[in-house]
Amino acid sequence: MKKTEEKISRLKQGRRIAFIATIVTLLLAVMKAAVGYIFDVKVLIADALHSVADMVAIAASGFGLWLASRKKSLRFPYGLYKAETLITLVIGALILWAGVELLRDGWQKLFIVITIQEFPLLPVSASIISILTAYFIAIKEKSTGKIIGSQSLLANANESFLDIATSFVVLVGIVLSYLHIPYVEAIVIMSISILIIKLGIENLWKSFLVLMDANLEPQLQSEIKEKINEIYGVKGVGEVKIRQSGPFRMVECNIKTSPTLPLYKAHELSDRTENFITDNYEHIESVFIHIEPSEKETISAIIPVKDINGMNSIVEGHFGRAPYFVILKINGKNIEIEDFYYNEYLNEKKHIGVKVIKAVIRYKLDILFTSQIGEISFYMLKDSFVDIYKIEEGLSVSEVTTGYFNKTFEKIVKPTHSLEESQSV
Length: 425
Hints:
Elements: H1 2-38, H2 42-68, H3 82-109, H4 121-148, H5 151-178, H6 183-211, H7 218-229, E1 236-245, E2 248-257, H8 263-280, E3 284-293, E4 298-305, E5 324-331, E6 334-342, H9 352-360, E7 367-370, H10 375-383, E8 387-390, H11 397-405
């Protein structure tokens, strides 16, 4: 609940920045239009019209963020986040339109000679004010857009940076017109218009892909898959899907776990995976986890033993007091000894089993074969989704595996020692 409130707060922050930028851009457009009209500077009037297009785009962005920040409802259970993407699509169209209009304006200026008799101090000042204001708007939109992950604010920031260049060209054009060199202005305006058209097309295309739920972040997809696979209890990760909804991401993934895992444990594993993703990836708004029984061909088993003698090693009766542990990889009827672990905690007095478990948990164990296990160790292993089978002391590792294949061993469903007794087991 707290995370959702934080996300809504960020959307409101972005909305506030967008509306402030709308008002400032409107004032700039009015100033440039008035000065251009009074002093008959057509290029400044054209720049004012371009600012009006920017103002509409920024206002649309603010409106989209306002919609996205509204609470979920029965009609819109996933929220209105995609409204922001839809508005970004509109922004892209407006930017494209502004670029085309600017290109036409630049083309026309190639054939019109404009001369100014007196130095245009006020039009030059208006252009300088426009440049400085556009710079501060662009910086604020970009920083806020990155913080809240807003596509439309970032799109507006890019457009504002282009406004700086456009206003600079207008400034140069005014000065060059005063110096009777008008053609440079037209050429530069046409060049910048091409950049604006490119930006508009990019925003249109990206918004289209987002609305079509395209996979835009394969690197994030691979990273999440790799991280989930490291969570203990996860036996494999199937398909991971990421779709963008406004400034947020929605994740769906299939994870595999032990077929013998109780339902409440599977639910616990699902919650653990979901919390891991939302805690580590700020812009992920929701996670849907589907759990499937693992069809894992290879399982990892551990057996406490008295000696190191391969498959003839003899089972030790006490889990925590065993001098060695043999780690097996079982694939069908094929058995391979992966490692022998030396118990370095034999001389300690308490919680030896707990310390051993912490040391061997890196093997991602599926099964423990033992004759006795204390209460703390038992619940630690069950929390780590390890099945525990009861065997007799004195059996060889080979006899244990044969009994496992023949299904002669029963699962241990509760500790064989009380909490007091397990202090030293």
